[in-house]
Amino acid sequence: MSRVVVVSGGGTGIGRAVAASCAKEGDTVVIVGRRAEVLAATADEIGAHAIVADVSEVAGAERVAAEIGERHGRVDVLVNNAGGNAALALSDPGGEASPVARASAAWMGNLRANVLTAVHLTEALRDLLAVNGRVILLSSIAAFRGSGSGSYGGSKAALHPYAIDLAAALGPRGITVNVVAPGYTTETEFFGGSMTEERHEMLVGQALNKRAGHTDDVAATIRWLTSPDAGHVTAQIVQVNGGALPGR
């Protein structure tokens, strides 16, 4: 019997790589995201079912859970990938907002994008998680060494204790909960069009293997963590960054 795998933010980047990898292995894959056209194109290409929803909202997460419960009745693997640096999309062209207001907007945006998306979807699907199921939360190297503005790294760091608490609560059902924290990873929309050649070389230079990460690197790690072989690995934060360790 194939596994039911749910991937939020599954239309692009790391989420897409995870969804494609699972579909290739014969899993029944459900991808969740806000952009209908992007999600539909990915679903058609990899053979997944798409649910358009904003899981930063309670109603969106509950609607996803209702549809999955009706169609599949269970979830074997949940990958909470939706997120990004919401602060990058904020603008104050007139410079009218106070520093406090700008900081508040950045923090609230990133808490919604990176924390509430994971919390809402996990809690909505909690009762559907199968015995010996797997839950993955996507963090970032920024959770360990900062992100330059505080709010993005801080929001990702908030997922770590949440995962540990979840692992304790769900462990008696054989469910593992782990965090994957990638470093610089290409083939994503994270940087938009802001990545320069100089910054790329700087980030590559921080990795001990002197290369950028790829979405398939992260997807392969997630595939292992969600496999039977990793059944005794839980409450862990696994970094996938080529040795670009905190503080280097």
Number of domains: 1
Derived structural class:
alpha/beta
Main sheet specs: 7 strands, parallel
Top-tier CATH class? Alpha Beta
Order of helices and strands: EHEHEHEHEHHHEHHE
CATH superfamily: NAD(P)-binding Rossmann-like Domain
Q: Helical residue percent?
A: 40-55%
Protein name: 3-oxoacyl-ACP reductase
Pfam family, one: adh_short_C2
Domain FAD-binding PCMH-type: 1-186
Family: Belongs to the short-chain dehydrogenases/reductases (SDR) family.
Task: Describe the fold and architecture.
- Residues 1-186 form the FAD-binding PCMH-type domain.
- Belongs to the short-chain dehydrogenases/reductases (SDR) family.
- This is 3-oxoacyl-ACP reductase.
- InterPro entries: FAD-bd_PCMH (IPR016166), KR_dom (IPR057326), NAD(P)-bd_dom_sf (IPR036291), Sc_DH/Rdtase_CS (IPR020904), SDR_fam (IPR002347), Sec_Metab_Biosynth_SDR (IPR052178).
- Keywords: NADP, Oxidoreductase.
- The chain is α/β, with parallel strands linked by helices.
- The protein has one domain (4-240): NAD(P)-binding Rossmann-like Domain (Rossmann fold, 3-Layer(aba) Sandwich).
- The chain is built from nine helices and seven strands.
- The chain has helices at 13-24, 36-46, 58-71, 99-125, 142-145, 151-157, 159-170, 197-206, 215-225; strands spanning 4-8, 28-33, 49-52, 75-80, 129-138, 176-182, 237-240.
- It has a seven-stranded parallel beta sheet, sandwiched between helices.
- Strand 4 (75-80), helix 4 and strand 5 form a beta-alpha-beta unit.
- Helix 1 crosses helix 9 (215-225), helix 3 (58-71) runs parallel beside helix 4 and helix 4 (99-125) runs parallel beside helix 6 (151-157).
